[in-house]
Amino acid sequence: MVSEAELSEAIGLIGHAVENLGIGGVLKARVQDFRVEEISKKITLDPKGRFTAANITLTNWETNRFIKKLARACGISKNRIFFAGTKDKRAVTRQVFIIDAPQKKVASVELPDVEIEVIGRTHQKLGFGNHKGNRFTIIARGCCDEDGNALSDNEAMDIVSDIHKKMAQKLGDDNFPNWIGPQRFGAGQAVMAYLSMEGNEKDDVAAFRKNIRDNGISPEALEDIPSWLGFERDILRHLVNVPDDWVGAFRKLPNNLQLMTVHALQSVAFNRTIKARLDSGLSLCGSTRHQFDDYRRG
């Protein structure tokens, strides 16, 4: 089992901008404690547009799983649904989806913990990353001091204000090191499985992965795989049919998950760059290459 410290080290999530004990507390104690609202780019509507644009609110849904369910309900391929980004699963999220299906069909879809607000018709698709950003509303519960004594809301916010003030003094107004956490790597379990071949997994999943490691890929493994590991099943089936075609197996993942592996590597480099800048006293803003060239000359 990978410890939290080992996980942080592996993804470059190390160091602090300023010294402070923080406010303790727990994030995502409840699904409703973490809310994400996508800041979308303008969608140009046209009554004659081919696609249906909709704002969709999801509660505790993994994005790709929702896409599959929505596609099935609309009677279309999942490749005919377009969106700008994969959101957190354990959260309440709201984002724009572009769906290649009739407006009435989309509006009639009923799925648990899903709210669909049809915006209108459009000719415009969305690509991955084709949004301005995300707005987060986060609740931290059980905030406490270093001795475990509960903090009131005002006491916790005073500490937050002190951290903000110290960062402004050290880094400049409104600057802060925007480290990238484990969610960019596909959630904590995926990171731990990648790092140590084990993680916080259910017993049946751990046993399945161990069997693959010990005995290799085989048709029998398809019978043992837990039913809810859909992506793993697709990859495994491909390798059973086309042995050693690792690229083809990887491409069985949805495009956004393929991109996530690239983004994960970029995120490690980004986190380590921030740490290097802080350690070297360099500004967090501007060109990294320019800053380090200046540092060497100095």
Give a brief rundown of this model.
With 298 residues, the chain is an alpha+beta fold. It has helices at 4-10, 63-74, 103-107, 153-171, 187-196, 203-215, 219-224, 230-241, 246-250, 255-280, 288-297, and strands at residues 24-27, 34-40, 51-59, 81-83, 92-99, 114-122, 131-138, 140-143.
Topology summary:
Blueprint: H1 4-10, E1 24-27, E2 34-40, E3 51-59, H2 63-74, E4 81-83, E5 92-99, H3 103-107, E6 114-122, E7 131-138, E8 140-143, H4 153-171, H5 187-196, H6 203-215, H7 219-224, H8 230-241, H9 246-250, H10 255-280, H11 288-297
Molecular structure report:
With 298 residues, this protein is of the alpha+beta class. Among the domains are: 103 residues, Alpha-Beta Plaits; 53 residues. Helices cover 42% and strands 17% of the residues. The chain contains eleven helices and eight strands. Strands 2, 3, 4, 5, 6 and 7 form a six-stranded mixed sheet that branches. A two-stranded antiparallel ribbon has the order 1-8. The longest helix has 26 residues.
